[in-house]
Amino acid sequence: MYLTRFRFNTARRGARGLLSGPNRLHAAVLHGFPEPERLQGDGGRILWRLDATARHDAVLYIASPEEPDLTHLVEQAGWPARGTGWDTRPYGKLLASLDTGQRWAFRLTANPVHFARTTPEGPKRWLPHVTPDQQLEWLLDRCAGRGFTIPAGADGGPNVAVHDRTWLRFTKSQDRREVTIRAVTYEGVLEIGDVEALRHSLVHGIGKAKAYGCGLLTLAPLGGR
């Protein structure tokens, strides 16, 4: 597996176009691989996340079983005069270093949903959690099964913040179907409980809407970036 970081030049028209919808970014990410449909196996899949930390700062992260070639993104939406324009590093060293009991800072953008009915007689379907409490509970209910727990913070509650609660809306080009996704970013501290389960979460993602920028969990040393 590899982890790639690409910074957008948000002053460019091409960047603004790609950042206008997750469907456009999804297509741009897949174009970085000759055969993206082949990269969805047991060893991992293509995952991506857009971190927009400020109005003019947008960074794309991609986890993938093969190294991507993002020349098209550099030419359209990056900084062509600055070397390759992206940074790709092997993920294996980090994955191999994980151990039970370790604590890491984490970031995850996910699509917190539940399978329920809108009326007593109606069919069940996937519905978004809409309040911060519901969205936090969604993560807390699932994290142990994904290989980690969230320890208590200084206030005694779970050491995680819920922010960037965004509605993503776009129209699929194939069938003109309107798609609405609730994307939520979680940042906090996790403690590893099951190393293999966490490794699976890191390379396969968590939750739904993975094609549209949800599911990628990333780790950083506590106190680091």
Automatic annotation (TrEMBL):
- What InterPro entries does the record point to? CRISPR-assoc_prot_Cse3
**Which Pfam family, any one of them, does this sequence belong to?**
CRISPR_assoc
Query: Which NCBIfam families has this protein been placed in?
Result: casE_Cse3 (TIGR01907)
What is the protein's given name? Type I-E CRISPR-associated protein Cas6/Cse3/CasE
Q: Which gene encodes it?
A: cas6e
